[in-house]
Amino acid sequence: MTATRLQLPQQKKQRYWLKAFLLGVSVSFLFFLPFLLYDNGLFLYYGDFNVQQISFYQMIHDSILNGNIGWSHTTDLGANMVGSYSFYLLGSPFFWLTLPFPSEAVPYLMAPLLILKTGCAALTAYIYLRRYVHNKNIAVIGAMLYAFSGFATYNIFFNHFHEAMVMFPLLLAAVDEYMETHRRGVLAMAVFGACLVNYYFFVGMAIFIVIYWFVRMFANSYKIKLKDFLILVFEVVLGFLGTAVLLIPSVLVVSQNNRVGNTLNGWAGLVYNNPQRYVHILESFFFPPDIPAYPNFTPDSNAKWGSVAGWLPVFSMTGVIAFMQTKNRKHWLKKLLPMLFLIAFVPILNSVFQLFNSQYYARWFYMLILMMCLTTVKSLEDIKVDWKRAVLWSTGITVAIAVGIGFMPNQKTDDAGVTTTSYGVMSYAGTFWAYVLIALISLGILILLLRLLKKDRKKFVKASICCICAVTVVYAVCFIALGKMRGYNSHDYLIPHVINQEDKINLPETDNVRSDFYGCMDNSAMFWQLPSIQAFHSIVPESIMEFYPTIGVQRDVGSRPEVSVYGLRSFTSTRWLFDYTGDSNSFVETDGKNKMPGWTLYDTQNDFNIYENQSYIPMGFTYDSYISEDDYNSCLESRRHLLLLKAMVLSDEQMEKYSDITQGKTDDFKSFVYTENEYYNDCQARKQLTCSSFAYDNDGFSAEITTDNTGDRLVFFSVPYEDGWSAQVNGEDVDIERVNVGFMAVRVPANTTSEIRFNYKTPGLTAGIIITVSCILIFASYMWIWGLRKNKEIKARKKTYRIGNRQTVSTIKAAEQDMDMIKAVNQEDKGNLDKNSTGDSDDEITRTPM
Hints:
Blueprint: H1 16-38, H2 48-65, E1 71-72, E2 79-80, H3 81-90, H4 93-96, H5 110-129, H6 136-147, H7 150-154, H8 162-181, H9 186-197, H10 199-218, H11 226-241, H12 244-254, H13 276-283, H14 318-324, H15 332-345, H16 347-350, H17 365-380, H18 387-407, E3 409-413, E4 419-423, H19 429-455, H20 457-484, H21 490-498, E5 514-518, H22 524-528, E6 535-536, H23 542-550, E7 558-559, H24 567-571, E8 574-580, E9 599-605, E10 608-613, E11 626-628, H25 629-634, H26 640-643, E12 648-650, H27 652-657, H28 659-662, H29 676-687, E13 693-697, E14 700-706, E15 713-720, E16 725-729, E17 732-734, E18 737-739, E19 743-748, E20 753-760, H30 765-799, E21 802-803, E22 807-808, H31 812-831
Parallel strand pairs: 5-8, 11-12
Antiparallel strand pairs: 1-2, 3-4, 6-7, 8-10, 9-10, 13-14, 14-20, 15-19, 16-17, 16-20, 18-19, 21-22
Helix pairs in contact: 1-5, 1-6, 1-20, 2-3, 3-12, 5-6, 5-8, 6-17, 6-20, 8-9, 8-10, 9-10, 9-11, 10-15, 12-30, 14-17, 14-18, 15-17, 18-19, 19-20
């Protein structure tokens, strides 16, 4: 008897994953398009985006193409490139896509990369959400809500945050995949990718995953045997260690940052110091986000850059409220979501996602938002959901917040004692009411969509996607436009004078001296890739963080020394100063004097007045006097920038080590005079014996100095001290001394010309490479062994299939094909449910093709 295989009708498969990706790309293109047209193909925003994201991308792009991956002498006074830029871009695959393009094209790639990131966020969100719904179009809706959430739009300002939004759904999907199928390798790769892309966000992801996993375990949604649990731990550790190539250098730098050790304590860990922050957190889930740095709903919430944004376009919190009101109290999401919202409102719990740092951020909200999207799509598939009640709650809270903030009486008394009463406690009334209008119109649209949901599910899906697209474009355009109004005028300043305009500057020497920028946009020097004392960068060497406060300069997220510390300029070999002529900030006082002594106008180029420091000291100079660290600390803080031009600061051990050079010259500091004339004299004295040549290169820098017969000297370089430096003088290794509160010096012999060479190797990079390569080899072996075992099991199963008693045949392949066809039909049936079908379930994960 001949067996006939059942022929099933072929049905067209929809590529829902592609649909989610293309929707993410196309909609984001639409809301970026007006601004691309306005700025001639560039996307220029304001704040951090303009001054950090664009300049960092272009500068590091050029450094890598030039073969420099070690020391960046154009970052502040100098910085470890891997440690300083792994947080911003080095782990991002989107950054590496810029390398085939020329330097001039990089600023033009910022918007296309953001568009691509948005599409990828929608794609990865779909990959996660599709497991929990029968109708995959509903998962597409959830993916759009995630990709176009308030958090995503808010963090256009922080370009590198979107990588975390892309990776997190993949990490969750990998956890689900392992817990369901015990499939090998997927979890290790997901952990590797998430940590490599951004170690800071990975910390938050890891903590969230632990909470997520335990909640599901206690809710009996996950089950696992000890053997499988040990394999899970192995894959997580393997994936994590695989990122050592970036992780170790980054940790070594970040652990030295003085911002890391600030933790919450006392009542500050239990209650926010700013009461408005509670309202800010609450309203962020019901309204489009305020733009960074300009909070509108809650002006005094002190969360200007906190990424407090959680609004879902059209749906707002309605889907979440609807899900929480269903009767299935045992569902793991009903345990997880309240826990996450509680975390958001308790300072010490909120800080756990950044290892208890005291600085307030809600940068983990994208993870909460994905859970909100999941509850929303599950609500859409459940016919038992009471949407009317959910809409009433969502609308009521929205209106209550709008009325409370918009109409609250606000009395103010001026200096003359006159009291006036206004209504509304927001900062910008026009913007506030525009946001209220968007939120209420969205809820009105949702009411109409929910009526359609009951009548025709297919039309509901199409209408929902269209409405989400429309609302997203409107609110995103408004959001970006509000931000652009706060930034530098792109057509008056950025485009004609800054971006790709370095060729308009023609000076005798710029690469091996430092420059200063007076009253200019942050990181202007980085756009032209000039060494500078001005920098807006959070992750720099410890020695910079240690040095600046000693001379009265605040160093938190940037180096912005005031003109009052004019001695710093000569101390750091700053030769040029740029003063933009198109603004009101002038380097010249009203009486015609310059704001720092010793500077003269050299030329006007590119609409910048360029001043030259007549007291400029070349890199690599020597001292005749030496003081101890205690003596330095005893000097008035306001005078220390001048003291550093008089004497080298050494530790007691160094004083003893170099006693033949210092010769006890430590008592003169009490007689030092700090006047403008003395400043000129000190600079001239330092110029008497300096390096005749100095040049940076990819491995460090070289210098040459000719000493006199008065004795050996310590040659000082205003380059930040780090453990990765090594030095040679005339080809022989020498000790590098940490002097002048964080900089470097080496000993050179008397009465000779010495070749000085400093080489830099990124601390931890070699060990990181070894660990990463080892993990890759272990992973490959692990997958190979698992593959062999799997093939062996398949072959064993094939032998059990026999037809009659005559022969053994390999029918397992056909059986597998049949099962695949049956599964496909089942999935098509689920995807083509009757318009009133519910998809009401399900704690169990349903694996379906994309």
